[in-house]
Amino acid sequence: FSSSQKHQRDLVSPVVEEASPSSTSSFEMLDMEAVPAPYREVQPHWFFCRRADDNTSWLPFSTEDSDKLENACNTGKSDVVVAVDGQRYDVRVKERMRYAVYWEQAPTEVRRCTWFYKGDKDTKFMPYQEDFSKSLEDAYMIAVTLDEWKRKLDFPTGETVILHNPKLIMQYQPIGLQDEWVSTPSEQTRPRTVKRGVDNIFVEIPDGESEKVDHLVFMVHGIGPACDLRFRSIIQCVNDFRSASLSLLASHYKRAQQDGQVGRVEFLPVNWHSALHGDATGVDEDIQRITLPSISRLRHFTNDTLLDLFFYNSPTYCQTIVDTVASEINRLHTLFKQRHPEFNAAVSVVGHSLGSLILFDLLTNQRNGSQAREGVPSGDLCHLNPGTLEQTLNRLGLQQYLDILKAENLDLESLALCQDSDLKDLGIPLGPRKKILNYVRRKWLPESVTSAVDYEYFDVGIGQVSIDYPQLAFQPQTFFAFGSPIGMFLTVRGLKRIDPNYTFPTCKSFYNIYHPYDPVAYRIEPMIVSDVDVEPMLIPHHKGRKRMHLELKDSLTRMSMDLKNNVLGSLRTAWQSFARLPVAALPPVEEGESTEAESSVSPEQPEQPEIKMGMLNGGRRIDYVLQEKPIESFNEYLFAIQSHLCYWESEDTALLLLKEIYDKLGVAFEQPQQ
Q1: Is residue 371 over pLDDT 60?
Q2: Where is this region: Disordered (predicted)?
Q3: Confidence band (pLDDT; 50, 70, 90) for 590?
Q4: Which residues are catalytic?
Q5: Residues 70-92: tens digit of each pLDDT
Q6: Edge-to-edge strand ranges of the sheet holding 478-482
Q7: pLDDT tens across 428-457, in order?
Q8: Of the four, 391, 441, 526, 667, which is 20 to 30 A from 84 by CA?
Q9: Range(s) for CATH 3.40.50.1820 in the chain?
Q10: Is CATH 3.40.50.1820 the right assignment for the domain spanning 213-366+470-543+615-665?
């Protein structure tokens, strides 16, 4: 034995015979091994601490990350930093602290764990501190080597650990450390269960993330600092969405993962709310001065969330919001490229609620390569060359107004930015004013403008007015909108329809995804194809099935229509209509089975004529609707708010994103076996 181990042996003494009855009865029932196994050093596993709402939990790193941390710890260097969790965090090994890389977050403790404990009322095992664990391991080694059990280990803090046998080790707390409400002797002597090694506790160790990143997605939140009904931040919600995508990759792209075709998709949160409501703007302090003192909680909620909608319609704060979103996306993109220098894949963007409108306006006002070089505003320019101001007025038969316009130094570009009232102030009559503005704007002005405009003259996507839009450092591949009010805002701005030929200058794909009961969501397709009533595309269930209650609803609707139309004048036809639902889709419900039952056979969808949906999504469909859950169908209003916040935890939504991403990469989609 080493000198420290000899000292440890001195701390280990035989257990007093007066051990508590409650503990002796528990270990007498366990079989003791006749021949003890030889001592083997415990294998450590690294954990990190998570604190939320006064609740502390310890979560394990993946095996891969834990091995990296252990190897770094064994080097003995003092400045070792290990990237973990898909390189989203850095662990400073000597400090035992974990730091977020992409977002602001308080550092959390990291621990090299070998011994764990669980109280009588605890649900999970907690790791001991490292020095405490070392003392336990030394005592355990002595007990195994000498085959001496039923001994106790006393600590200076008053705790006592009794090593009854290799499988039964208990910790007793001194009376002074017991909870205040513990009163009975039996409760006071109730021990903690002690376990050695992570293999002996019930904990799910996550799979390590692939180092290969196939796609990068930035996710922009909506109003307020919280993103769901649990009042979680955008960081927490994106973490859940990322975890769902990793699970879906393992189930729906299993073969491609095994073949090395598929790595993973990285999702990073974009937070703009804190910048708007921070000290830099002072807006919260200004609002607080004029806020009434009554119903304070409701007013605080309104100021912190709903007012974001009004801020976005204010030129001053709208500029702050779009600048923050663009700069944050560009910052994250640059940092990601620095940490992943081999990354050369595509990038997409996701916006939820107001976040989708912010992205829509940003993308509408991006410049492609040639426009950026020439300083041309964003949007698709008309192919016709309008010529000079003089030629234009001659073409319109209004050459008598040339001197008036030249006196104000107006050319065609500046004329296109004029309001009707501007020309009226110059003394130009109503008729000529309308002719000039209509012609110039149609022939010269780009389809997306960044100044105040008369929307009467536009048939294309319009961005927020009077804003200097920043440019993104990349061209997004796809824009996904969750629960988006884009359609409503465009209509309120005066836009009646979107030109079918319109597309974002730098982004060629656009999906509008919504829950059917979402009160904030609006459609886009009717603004492109107004003469045809087109149903949205139904997003398949991630298990490849349509929800059973929707199947039943469709079948009853078909039967009702057949009865109403008296097809062939017989009930037989109506029954056959109902029977179109395959028998296998209606399995018998076993006792205790959830109402979440699904149809296991894909529904028979009537063929719809192909509809050209414009170029906003490359001619493909834009509006995609989630399937409501059976319980949600009972009361649409009850689940309205929840429906607007459901996207972060929706596996169906995550799978739609993955399928769009990997379809473009040519990776085959696999429907898992039921």
Answers
A1: no
A2: 1-22, 589-612
A3: very low
A4: 353
A5: 999 998 887 899 999 999 999 99
A6: 264-270, 213-220, 347-352, 478-482, 509-514, 623-625, 537-538
A7: 988 888 788 777 766 654 443 333 333 333
A8: 667
A9: 213-366+470-543+615-665
A10: yes
